[in-house]
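call fold(seq) -> C-alpha cells
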Amino acid sequence: MLLREGLRSLLERFEFTVVASVGDAEALVSAVDQHSLDLVITDVRMPPGFRDEGLRAAVQLRTTRPELPIVVLSHYVETRYAEALLDFHDGRALGYLLKERVAEIEDFVASLRRVAAGGTVVDPTVIKQLVQRQRDPLDRLTQRQRDVLVLMAEGHSNARIARDLTVSEAAVGKHIGSIMAKLDLAYADVDVNRRVKAVLAFLRAG
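ret:
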C-alpha cells in the first residue's frame, strides 16, 4: 500500500493522471477493462499469494492487448515471465524495472514516458539474467544436482535417490529444491508438475 500510494503521489506530481489504484491482480485486470489507459504499472508480487500474481496479470493483459504499455516493478528478476512479456508486440511498450530504480526519480519518470510512447525499458540486471538464461539451463546445476536429476529422470523416488547416492532424504530434498530454482520451476503450483518439468528440461538437453 505504501509503495502504491507513493507511486500515485509521484505520478501526479509529474502530471500523470491516475485513473485507478488497486491492490491485487484481479482488480488490476478489471481496472484495465474499465478504463482507456495509456500506461499500466504493476508490482510482481500482489495478493493473495504475494508470489508473481502481478506479473502473471501483466502477461494476461499483454495476451489480450499486446499494444498496452506496461511497466513491471520487482524486487527480483523472474526471467520466465520477462521473456513472455518481451515476446508480445516485439517487446514494444514494455518496462521491467527493479524497485530500486524508483529512487532515481527523474530516470524512473523518463522510463515511464518512454514506455507509454511505445518504447522498451529493461533494467540492466534483467538483461544480464535473460542473456544467462539463453545458455543451457542445466549448466547452472552442480554435479551432485545433475546426479539427482538423472535419477529423477529414471523415475526414482527421493528415498531411492538417497540410497543410490548415499545421502539423506533431507539432502535429496534440498538438492531438488535447488534444481527447481535453477531451472526456474520454483513457483510451479504442483510438486509433481515441477518434477516432470525438471525431467523434461533434462531430456531436452540431451
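The first strand starts at residue 40 and ends at 43.
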